[in-house]
Amino acid sequence: MTKIYLDHAATSPVHPQVIAKLVETMGQVYGNPSSIHAAGREARKQLDNAREYLAKSIRAKDQEIILTSGGTEADNLAIFGTAYARKSEGTHIITSQIEHHAVLSACEKLEKEGYDVTYLPVNEQGRIATEDVKDALRDDTILVTIMLGNNEVGTIQPIKEIGELLKDHKATFHTDAVQAYGLLSISVADLNVDLLSVSSHKINGPKGIGFLYQRKGTKLAAQLFGGQQERKRRAGTENVPGILAFAEAVSIAQQTMEEKREQYNHYKNNMISIFEQANLDFKLNGDEQSMLPHIMNVSFAGTDVESLLVNLDIAGLSVSSGSACTAGSINPSHVLVAMYGEEASELRNSIRFSFGYGITDAEVKAAAILTVNIVRRLVK
C-alpha cells in the first residue's frame, strides 16, 4: 500500500541537504561555543554565521535572535518573559481564541497568577478584527500576542495593521510565526512586531530547534538559568548541529518560497476540483482570500471526523484534524469552535490536508480520490 503524507503542518520530513548538514556538523563541529580554545572558537564562528543568516530571513539583526528548543519555548519565553519583565507596568494581556496551545496554555497559567487575559473572537473565516484589538487595549495592557497564520485553517491575521495600531501604545507585540515562516516573506520592521517565534521542524529542518526574535530594547525576563548563553537571555549550551541544520533548512526555504506557494496552491485547486467533480458536499474552512498556501481545512457534510481520519489512515493517507484524541473520544477544535460556535457541524466533520516537500501531483490526485471514495462510503 502506498503511503501519502499530507500532514506537513504538524511536522515536515527533514530535507536530505539538511540531514547531510546535521551529520557533517555532528562529526566536525564538536566544540562548546563558550570555550576559548580552537574547537570552541570554530563552533562559535559557525554558530554566529548561522544566527546572522536566521536574522536576515526576517530582516532582523543577529543580536536580536534568541535560539530556543523550538516554537513552544519561543512562545513561552515571549509570553512569560514579557509578563514577568513588565508586571510593574500592568497585568493585562490580549490574545485570540484561535492561538496555538503554546500561547493559550501560557496565558491560562498567567491568569492563575493574577494576570488579566482578553481572548479576542474571530469571524467565520477565522480572522481577527483590528478594531477588536483597539477596543480591548487598556492603559495596563503590557502584551498583545496574535499569531501570523493559523495552523489549523491557515487564515492569515492582520498583523501589519495591528502593528500600526500598537505604535502609539506601550504594549509589547508578539506574533507566533511558526506556521507562516518559510512560506510568507517576513520583515519584522514592516510588521512592527517586538517578538516573533519560529520553529525548524515546520520547514524541513530538525525538531528541537527554533528561535525568538526580540527587538532591541524590548523587555524580556529570562526563563532558563545557568550559563550566560544567548546574551544571558536563554541559558544552556547551544545545539550547534541543530542550529546549523536549521539555517540550511532556512536557506532552502528562502530560495524556494515563491515556487512552493505556487505549487501548494496548485495542489489545493486540484483537490478542490476533484471534490467538485465528484459532487461531494464540502466546504473550505478559513479565509480563502488570505490563507497560508499549504493548509486546506475541509468540512465534509454527513461524515464524522474520527471515522474519516481512521479510514483515511487505513487507506494510507496521513492527514489530521484540529481535534485532540483522548481515551477514544475527540474534543472539538478550539479554532473551529471560535469560528462557528459550539454546536456547529463543522466541529465534527472537518479535516486538514497540508502540503510540503516531496509531495507530487500524482500523490495529491490519489489522496483526493481516496478521500472521495471514503467520504461517499461514510455518508451512505
From TrEMBL:
Q: Where is the Aminotransferase class V domain?
A: 4-366
Q: Which cofactor does it need?
A: pyridoxal 5'-phosphate
> Which GO molecular function entries does the Swiss-Prot or TrEMBL record give?
cysteine desulfurase activity; iron-sulfur cluster binding; metal ion binding
Q: Does the keyword Iron apply?
A: yes
Provide the E.C. number(s) assigned to this enzyme.
Answer: 2.8.1.7
Q: Name one Pfam family in it.
A: Aminotran_5
Give the range the annotation lists for the signal sequence.
none
Q: Does the keyword Transport apply?
A: no
- At the top level of its lineage, which domain of life is listed? Bacteria
Keywords linked to the UniProt accession? Iron, Iron-sulfur, Metal-binding, Pyridoxal phosphate, Transferase
Q: Which SUPFAM superfamilies match?
A: PLP-dependent transferases
Family the entry assigns: Belongs to the class-V pyridoxal-phosphate-dependent aminotransferase family. NifS/IscS subfamily.
> Mind telling me which PANTHER family this protein's record contains?
CYSTEINE DESULFURASE, CYSTEINE DESULFURYLASE FAMILY MEMBER
Q: What is this protein called?
A: cysteine desulfurase
* Species of origin: Paenisporosarcina antarctica
Q: Taxonomic lineage of this organism?
A: Bacteria, Bacillati, Bacillota, Bacilli, Bacillales
